[in-house]
């Protein structure tokens, strides 16, 4: 599943279509009435966490890539796209994704201060949201899109390893200074993720995600599904402290 930084890259790649008018469109599962897109100009592209937003006058098309979503710019695969947008001789195609029409103003739908890649990110608000759930685990807090919009399993694992926090630590038990360190590292690593993804060096820089041995203590990593999301956590029982 693409994480926040990957959606930012997509947003950057499609800027050539901003201001252009849709001349043809199709949706292969009927989840979106594409007739509303015809002859409409794209006013902007935005992202909120894992949501990619195509803005038109008066409405927005939200795209969520889910686990296996992909896209093609000025090319297509043999498989019909979930959403096809034509701009005269140019095209934009999305596959295996979820589509949703948003008719409300985006500021009424999204909390931009929860987006890990946004200039509006608000650390104090994130702490307040976490403290409102005293039994929340660290792994679940990071994967909660209303607190850390854009964090996926890679960012979760890398952040917890870098801050030496066990994924099943209770948020209420983590010392305030350590909790703030977790937040700071989440944002910092998200932008490292962005740059490494652009350079094609993301996987080679992973320290914990899908690794077998802790690079600090040279003991086997524990791999276990943790938290309410039951997503895989890779952690070291020697150096990652369980706050409980």
Automatic annotation (TrEMBL):
Residue stretches making up the Formamidopyrimidine-DNA glycosylase catalytic domain: 2-98
Coiled coil regions, renumbered to chain: none
Pfam families listed in its UniProt record: Fapy_DNA_glyco (PF01149), H2TH (PF06831)
Keywords annotated in UniProt: DNA damage, DNA repair, DNA-binding, Glycosidase, Hydrolase, Lyase, Multifunctional enzyme
SMART domains in alphabetical order: Fapy_DNA_glyco (SM00898), H2TH (SM01232)
Keyword Hydrolase applies: yes
Reaction it catalyzes: Hydrolysis of DNA containing ring-opened 7-methylguanine residues, releasing 2,6-diamino-4-hydroxy-5-(N-methyl)formamidopyrimidine
Domain Formamidopyrimidine-DNA glycosylase H2TH DNA-binding: 112-192
Family (UniProt): Belongs to the FPG family.
Protein name: DNA-formamidopyrimidine glycosylase family protein
Taxonomic lineage from the root: Bacteria, Pseudomonadati, Bacteroidota, Sphingobacteriia, Sphingobacteriales
